[in-house]
Amino acid sequence: MSHQLRTPITVALAHAELLPQDGADPAAASDAAIVVDELTRLRALVDQLLLLATAEQGDTPRSAAVPTGLASLVDASVRRWNPTPREWLIGQSDDATVLADPERLVLALDAVIENAVEFTGDGEAIELSVRRDGRQAAIVVADSGPGIPESEVGSMFERVARSEPREPGPRNFGLGLSIVRSITEAHGGRATAERSPLGGAAVALWLPLQNPATPTRPVSEASDNLRLQPEATVA
């Protein structure tokens, strides 16, 4: 179904992008821009549905699973998200390597970070950390937002889950976090959520370690709550 939906959306978007968006008629230009934006959002939604369907089937090819260091993945993610006006922190950073499809793991981590961004405001804190526990390790995304009501923790990874974001009005975050759950489960892991020490929510992506016998790397004092300054904006 997702594959069949992508074709007409792609065709419609190609035609919509040819519409004059800076012509003499401001109303027509505004309408054309809205059509392009909405078709782009619809295509992204279909892509998410396709990803969710393949992840739920455990469709993670063995050839795509490679040794992946979680600490380096966290560092790269924080640097990509750093321009977003939050206080980005790197907490505990255990030495942990898993067998994973890096692209899908990044998609899952981005969905969790996006959720944390939506539930926090400018200048509020979002902390990423890597923690080992026995034969598994987790990437943990914690924020200082309003947190998750106890009644919603068990259902937040469902497709239709709803909660209250920072801005007024309910928001459906079920699709993004259900993709997180499906991707982690396809890798033999799980996704969990609890109250964050920062006061908001803490979502963890648990994955089996490639080599559980590898000793944990000591955490230096400097790595605890490491603050990354926003990158300079190029004029």
Assembly form of the protein: single chain
CATH architecture designation of the largest domain = 2-Layer Sandwich
Supply the CATH superfamily name of the largest domain: Histidine kinase-like ATPase, C-terminal domain
CA-CA gap between termini = 44 Å
The radius of gyration is: 20 Å
Helix content: 25-40%
For the record, the CATH class of the largest domain is Alpha Beta
Overall mean pLDDT score?
Answer: 77
Fold and architecture overview:
With 235 residues, the protein is α+β, with helices and mostly antiparallel strands. The chain folds into 2 domains: 2-56; 62-227, Heat Shock Protein 90 (2-Layer Sandwich). It has helices spanning 2-16, 26-56, 70-81, 102-118, 150-153, 174-186; strands at residues 66-69, 87-93, 97-100, 125-133, 136-143, 162-163, 171-172, 190-195, 201-208, 226-227. The chain has a 6-stranded mixed β-sheet, covered by helices on one side. Strands 1-3 form a two-stranded antiparallel sheet. Helix 4 (102-118) runs antiparallel to helix 6 (174-186). Mean pLDDT is 77; it is low at 161-173 and 217-235.
Structural topology:
Elements: H1 2-16, H2 26-56, E1 66-69, H3 70-81, E2 87-93, E3 97-100, H4 102-118, E4 125-133, E5 136-143, H5 150-153, E6 162-163, E7 171-172, H6 174-186, E8 190-195, E9 201-208, E10 226-227
Parallel strand pairs: 2-4
Antiparallel strand pairs: 1-3, 2-10, 4-5, 5-9, 6-7, 8-9
